[in-house]
Amino acid sequence: MNLEYKVEGGDFTSAGLASSQIKKILKQLNVDPAVIKRVVIALYEAEVNIVAHAYRGVIKAQIDGGGINLILEDEGPGIPDVEMAMTPGFSTASKAVREMGFGAGMGLPNISENADDFNIETTVGKGTTLRIGIKFR
Amino acid sequence: MNLGDLCNLVDGTAVCGAGRLGDSVEYAFASDLMSDVLTIKSTDFILITGLANIQSLRTLEMSDASYMLLCRGKEVTPEMLELAEENDILIITSPYSLFRCAGILYSAGLKPLY
């Protein structure tokens, strides 16, 4: 099963819609609730990152019997120092993002914690692509 | 702790999901930072927060958690109500501060997650 969702930068009202819809689909597929929670927390953090930091992005989800692969491609400023961005507590979030309850510097570490496979490709001035893989068993 | 008792302790009002006031919850987590909430592995907790926006509800939805205590007399927005109803989430509002709510509930036996 292949799914695709568009995400707009700055649109905090809609942030989480894609994660919510993928959660419903995984429930219908009777995936273990503990695994669903890992998937949607990683995905929600990544979706909020696009809304918080990028101009726009696309979420692609590929689901098969063995697991889920998520690709989140954004057009945005990119990440100048990935190692720094992965440090718990480090954040470049704006005041507006913090007022929405994000920008604690836990997003990327949370994604890494919940994923079986996690990869970041980023180009400063162009954008970032996250690949997140989670096995169902 | 019974959620009806919890509601009374903080002079609270159940604005959504009042049917769940008979449920019990063992743990609480108090934060306005949603990424901190998203580190919690358990689903048996009430979120005590002052963050009155749709992302606090989304965070509960993603966490498979069902209870929120909204402090400092914050108003629940229509978007929050809609999402809470869709996910059968109980929202209790309290006029007390987050610190006061947390202190009262901790003293009454609600347990911390960390």
Q: What features would you describe in this structure?
A:
The complex is a heterodimer of chains A (137) and B (114). With 137 residues, chain A is of the alpha+beta class. Chain A contains 5 helices and 5 strands, in the order βααββαααββ. In chain A, strands 1-2-3-5-4 form a 5-stranded antiparallel β-sheet, with helices on one face. Chain A is globular and about 40 Å long. The mean pLDDT of chain A is 95. In chain B, strands 1-5-4-3-2-6 form a 6-stranded mixed β-sheet, sandwiched between helices. The mean pLDDT of chain B is 96. In chain B, helix 3 runs parallel beside helix 4. Chain B has helices at 3-9, 34-37, 54-63, 78-86, 98-107; strands spanning 13-16, 27-30, 45-49, 67-70, 90-93, 111-112. Chain B is built from 5 helices and 6 strands. With 114 residues, chain B is α/β, with parallel strands linked by helices. The interface between A and B is medium-sized, with 25 and 20 residues.
Figure out the total of helices of chain A: 5
Please outline the major beta sheet of chain A.
Answer: 5 strands, antiparallel
Largest sheet entry of chain B = 6 strands, mixed
- Spatial shape of chain A: globular
Question: Residue ranges of chain B: pLDDT <50 for 5 or more in a row?
Answer: none
Shape of chain B: globular
Q: What's the CATH H-level superfamily name of chain A?
A: Histidine kinase-like ATPase, C-terminal domain
Distance between the termini of chain A: 18 Å
User: The CATH topology of chain A, please?
Assistant: Heat Shock Protein 90
Beta-strand level of the residues of chain A, as a percent range?
Answer: 25-35%
Protein chain pair with the most extensive contact, residues per chain: A-B, 25 and 20 residues
Strand content of chain B: 15-25%
Q: Give, in order, the helices and strands of chain B.
A: HEEHEHEHEHE
Supply Rg of chain B. Answer: 12 Å
What's the number of extended β-strand segments of chain A? Answer: 5
Which architecture name of chain A does CATH use?
Answer: 2-Layer Sandwich
How many helices of chain B? 5
Q: What is the CATH topology descriptor of chain B?
A: Udp-n-acetylmuramoylalanyl-d-glutamate--2,6- Diaminopimelate Ligase, Chain: A, domain 1
User: What is the highest CATH level, the class of chain A?
Assistant: Alpha Beta
Q: Mind telling me which CATH architecture of chain B this is?
A: 3-Layer(aba) Sandwich
Mean pLDDT of chain A equals 95
